[in-house]
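Tokens help. Our protein:
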Amino acid sequence: MSMDMDLFETRDCPLCGGRETEVAHRLRETLRYRNVDESLEYKVVRCPVCGLLYVNPRLREEVLAAVYADDLYANWATRPGHVPEVNLRYDIYHHNLDERLAAYRHFCSRLAVHKVAGSAFEVGAGFGYLLKTLREHGFTVSGVELSHYAAGFARERFDLNVRQGNFLAGDFGEEAHDLVVLWHVFEHLHRPNRTLAKCARMLRPGGTMMITVPFHETFTVEKINPVEHLYYFSKEHVARFMEKHMLCETWVDGGFVFARKTGEEA
């Protein structure tokens, strides 16, 4: 099946604005959307100016939002046909918690080393496990999550202040937080520049942002789903995105890229 361009869009490089691309990888993945249930080829292209890898063409924003619809979040473990990749996501959230929570605790230990404390906000809070861990380490926490089901789970199970909705459409305060976190979210965003600009405005002077993604130094491109993962970042690329929107210092600590706000956003 060829791509239905009503579902897809093309775009320039979101990091440097370059319009030229070269095809770096061709990946096949199944798209399940309305009456579509087909294996499609996706192109991962490289920007020859800055080297960023990204999916182009990509699913339109409204289509990807539907892929993330609540029935998928709520029914990953029970969908008819037992679709393996769908159930895998549910497993990651609810069955492999020891590994996930260990990663969150390690992150909190690194925050202590870097002297980050106070108010924490998570973009794409999911089911709330990271915010819960941050709260246990002394942070005042809040967040936003696109899924009604996941946001409701975080509120009801953990009594967390997680608002359901689109991050860019919400008002979460200006200079209101000491820490903003995007944990395996940045690679999914249709509007990464607008998102980081808003995150910068939310941070207090001296506040810290942290982004972690499946960096392509660690994960091979072929193992990452191009339906949802729109970018294949290096740590350097993530740092450059952060620097683009904040007068800041950036540093890498293991799998975490940090930025500290030292002035107004660019």
